[in-house]
Amino acid sequence: MTDLTGAVWRKSTRSGDNGGACVEVADNLPGIVAVRDSKDPMGPVLTFTLTAWTAFTTATKREGRAS
Fold first, then answer.
1. Cα–Cα distance, 29 to 2 (Å, whole number)
2. How far apart are CA 63 and CA 19, in angstroms?
3. Which residues contact 20 (CB under 8 A, 6 or more apart)?
4. Is the CB of residue 18 less than 8 Å from the CB of residue 40?
5. d(C-alpha 46, C-alpha 56), whole Å
6. pLDDT tens for residues 28-66?
7. Cβ contact 23:14 at 8 Å
8. Radius of gyration from C-alpha coordinates of the chain
9. d(C-alpha 20, C-alpha 40), whole Å
10. How many domains does the chain have?
11. Domain presence at residue 17
12. pLDDT of the residue at 50
């Protein structure tokens, strides 16, 4: 299990005013990026390596421009 002590959560810039369906990201932890559902802050957390997270966000941004 990943130690999330000290995680600073922020709402994703892509989570608009959509009735609470928001993603929160903690990218201040050494070597990982953590992601959770803002409606369930005590619920499960997905963790990614910085390399994997960067690849995901880069591909997402690229796909968003292609649409």
1. 10
2. 24
3. 38, 39
4. no
5. 13
6. 999 999 999 988 989 999 999 999 999 998 998 877 666
7. yes
8. 13
9. 10
10. 1
11. no
12. 94
The residue count for the chain: 67
Tokens describing residue 34:
């953590």
Q: Is position 62 within any domain?
A: yes
Q: Is residue 1 part of a domain?
A: no
The contacts of residue 28 (CB under 8 Å, 6+ apart) are 6, 7, 8
Q: What are phi and psi of 33, to 5 degrees?
A: -125, 130
Give pTM, 2 decimals: 0.79
Neighbouring CB atoms inside 10 A of 6's CB total 9
Q: Which domain holds residue 40?
A: 22-66
Neighbours of 25 (CB within 10 A): 20
Name 11's bridge partners.
24
